[in-house]
């Protein structure tokens, strides 16, 4: 059986995977779910980047792990496969993109980070939850995403926002990814829409695309069993 490394999205911690992990473990797999810098139990790391986070995490990964990242976690997963390909046996990229930030995106993220540092998270979180979930989210998904985001600091969110904005463009990496890859996206993902997932799936030589119907950006939270079963089937 496989070791599956689950890399969480912004702006939550490893508990994002609480509904996914039991399904994966029941299928016999081992699960690792680290916290990204500043989130959960991970200490603050001012000025961190995706590449630096990949370099720090890679030594703890068993060779040939299934590395699965959603959104921000997907950016980190791409950094790991780019910089430490020996650690990755299979790759899952969920609700993420290969492209770098646009100039407009850079400015928007800079303003968002400044707003978090100035005003805190009280207004940011409800707006984020609405944007991140699908058009008819369950009460559980809304409550859980709100709870997990509310447990994080504004500074951690601001640092992560800047780290996301500074991620390199990975488009040239796609044809060089030499491991089987599963690309997952929510049907109604408005943050990283399905066309971006299609670009990744077509660009990676041994990739398949799975669309989770009815879901928004947080597919593993909105449809955890379907998400986990897709990964289990992918691993074989």
What is the fold's blueprint, element by element?
Layout (H helix, E strand, L loop, with lengths): L2 E5 L13 H6 L3 E3 L17 H8 L7 E6 L1 H12 L4 E7 L8 H17 L4 H9 L6 H12 L3 H12 L15 E6 L7 H10 L3 E6 L6 H4 L1 H12 L1
Parallel strand pairs: 1-2, 1-3, 3-4, 4-5, 5-6
Q: Major β-sheet, in short?
A: 6 strands, parallel
Gap between N and C termini, in Å? 9 Å
CATH topology-level fold name: Rossmann fold
Strand content: 5-15%
**Segments where pLDDT lies below 50 for 5+ residues?**
none
**Rg result:** 16 Å
Q: Which structural category fits the helices and strands?
A: alpha/beta
| CATH superfamily placement | Alpha/Beta hydrolase fold, catalytic domain
- Sequence of strands across the biggest β-sheet: 2-1-3-4-5-6
Q: What is the overall shape? A: globular
Named CATH architecture: 3-Layer(aba) Sandwich
Q: How much helicity do the residues have?
A: 40-55%
Order of helices and strands: EHEHEHEHHHHEHEHH
| Overall pLDDT confidence | 97
Q: What is the number of domains?
A: 1
Q: How many helices does DSSP assign? A: 10
- Regarding CATH, which class? Alpha Beta
Number of strands: 6
What does this structure look like?
Helices cover 43% and strands 14% of the residues. The protein has 236 residues and is an alpha/beta fold. It has one domain (3-235): 3-Layer(aba) Sandwich (Rossmann fold). The chain has a six-stranded parallel β-sheet with strand order 2-1-3-4-5-6, sandwiched between helices. Helix 8 links the parallel strand 5 and strand 6 (207-212). Helix 2 packs across helix 3 (72-83) and helix 5 (124-132) packs across helix 6 (139-150). The longest helix is centred in the middle third of the chain and has 17 residues, at 103-119. The radius of gyration is 16 Å and the shape is globular.
